[in-house]
Amino acid sequence: MEQGRYDLVIVGGNAGGLSVAISSVRSGIESVRIVEPGSTVAFPELVPENQLDIGYGEYAVAVDVDPDGSSDDLVVTTNHHVYRTTGCLIAQRERDPNWVPPIPVPDSKRVHVDELPDHVAEEDILIIGPSDNAVELVANAAHRGGRVVMAAGGMDPGRLSPAGENMLRRLERERRATVLYRSVPSHIGEIDGYPIAYFSDRRTPDLEFDHVVFATTRYRPESVRNGVSDAALATGRVVFLGLPDEDPSIKTATGWEIGNVVAEACFPDLDVAPARSKLRQRAGHAGAIEELRDEYYNATITTFEPTHSDLWVLRVRPDHGDTSHVPGQYASLGLGFWEERTDDAVDVDLDERWTKLIRRSYSISHPIFDEHGYLARQVLSDELEFYIVLVRPTEDNVPELTPRLALKRPGDRIYLGPKVAGRYTLSSVVDPQATVVFLSTGTGEAPHNSMIIELLHKGHMGPIVSGVTVRNWADLGYLDKHRELERRYGNYRYLPMPTREPDVPKRYLQDLIVDGDLAEAADGALDPERAHVFLCGNPAMIGLPEKVDGVDVFPETTGVTQLLVDRGFQLDRRGDPGNIHYEEYW
């Protein structure tokens, strides 16, 4: 059945095919038809937004020239229709049948390659891969209600297809997916039948998922030429997406420029304008920054309370999603490289990264009291609170995020990541009479604020002690509130320790243990059989050991961990529970 005439017929509604369709229209090609064998395209949201014409359930059978020679048209025959067209682009890609996961994985029905499980709603799904194929899987899982994390270590979004890049930004902006741009698991393990992803970098803790999906890098199969006649190839108006450059009869391109390639191959008389992405078009425009903020930011700063110029408590309200989390967990905040800095430092490769987003993880803090003076309840809030210190540049380090965050005020926009994560929680504290100790440096007390309030709300009866070292009294953003907690709750003690005040002896958290002050603050109940200690902050303070030939070797400088282990405490490790708990990112 002859369906009609189109300027361009695209075979395949994957990310590449959608990119070609959108960019071709932007290049001036008027009528474009996509034929897609499945019941949907990679990113269905882009269809109505770009008024794309899709033939679902169609696959190409043959591409040839006009059989009666009465026109220069190509004839594309599908299982349902026959199309006359000036040009044809074939975007089909397939999985390499010889591909195997690049990291060790268990033999599990919960580990998949290039396909999602049947049920993903409300499931935690990890998708591994830096390609368009990975983005397609992420979008599919998010659309079906999954809680999705994409491990795309080393991925440059600019190397994705335009449609893939657009969709990835949207999923992040709407808090429907978390993207780990710099992290990828070193191996996949299994605990109680569920896969767990182990990460070698300390930025990302080990995470457990309901399913892990590997996204392979697709390739152009040799069979893609099947059904394309030599006469059709000879016209130069059959374009294959992503073929090697060494084949001179085929034209290829990446990014939005593929629209230009198609236009130049099939419509030589058309005056083609460069079909860049909207983002790149904005770079030199006066309104570029506002448009970039609209493109990336998904939350509003509602409170910005400076303790002093270098230390702030801020609250953030997301546009989408809720703020539920477990006390002690963390979330990511982000600002664009296009934002101004509070200092004169120059970011490395700023020109290349100007349109990129800076993301950093921060522990979620907790307001101590509400507006009426009662203990605050995070469950009633639609905001998240963070406690952040300005990192100043040095010869060896140019910080990227906090010098920009320092200039923000209530009402300003910001990026908030979708996934609240972390296993640094109170899950191990099940005895209401247990002693619970929190030790931190600087803003490391942020997660402890949340955990302390949780314990007090639950009516915890055992001693609760929070010790924190800072440089000066002014660096204690929550000091007055913790003093008020001490007055209200007889089982709570707050031990602030400034190290650079002239009238205060210089001591560290290790000294609290060695001198017995910590045990005294805990009413003498610092018993490893009934106590839990939580550590967050400077790694030198925590002093984690390294495994050498199966034996724990502690750092040369004695940290809190070694002092506690010497007193009978045990590190809490995955699969080997203990009572020394530590935050795993820094």
Mind describing the biggest β-sheet? 7 strands, mixed
CATH class of the largest domain: Alpha Beta
Question: Would you tell me the structural class of the helices and strands?
Answer: alpha/beta
Distance separating the two termini = 63 Å
User: What would the CATH topology of the largest domain be?
Assistant: FAD/NAD(P)-binding domain
Q: Given the C-alpha coordinates, what overall shape results?
A: elongated
Q: Give the count of structural domains.
A: 4
Would you identify the CATH H-level superfamily of the largest domain? FAD/NAD(P)-binding domain
- The number of helical runs is 16
Mean pLDDT rating: 88
**Count of beta strands:** 28
CATH architecture of the largest domain: 3-Layer(bba) Sandwich
Proportion in helices: 10-25%
Taking Cα atoms only, what radius of gyration do you get, to the nearest Å?
29 Å
Q: Approximately what portion of the residues adopt beta-strand conformation?
A: 25-35%
> pLDDT under 50 segments (min length 5)?
244-256, 274-282
Structure, briefly:
The protein has 586 residues and is of the alpha/beta class.
List keywords for this structure.
FAD/NAD(P)-binding domain; Elongation Factor Tu (Ef-tu), domain 3; six-stranded antiparallel beta barrel; elongated; 586 residues; 16 helices; alpha/beta
What are the SSEs and their pairings?
Blueprint: E1 2-11, H1 15-26, E2 32-36, H2 46-50, E3 53-56, E4 60-65, E5 74-78, E6 82-90, E7 111-113, E8 124-128, H3 132-143, E9 147-151, H4 162-173, E10 177-180, E11 187-191, E12 194-198, E13 207-208, E14 211-214, H5 230-234, E15 238-240, H6 258-266, H7 278-282, H8 288-296, E16 299-308, E17 311-318, E18 330-336, H9 350-353, E19 357-365, E20 384-389, H10 402-405, E21 413-416, E22 435-441, H11 446-458, E23 464-470, H12 479-488, E24 492-498, H13 509-514, H14 517-521, E25 531-536, H15 539-542, E26 546-548, E27 551-553, H16 560-566, E28 580-582
Parallel strand pairs: 1-2, 1-6, 2-3, 6-15, 7-14, 8-9, 8-14, 9-10, 22-23, 22-25, 23-24, 25-28
Antiparallel strand pairs: 4-5, 5-6, 11-12, 12-13, 16-17, 16-21, 17-20, 18-19, 18-21, 19-20, 26-27
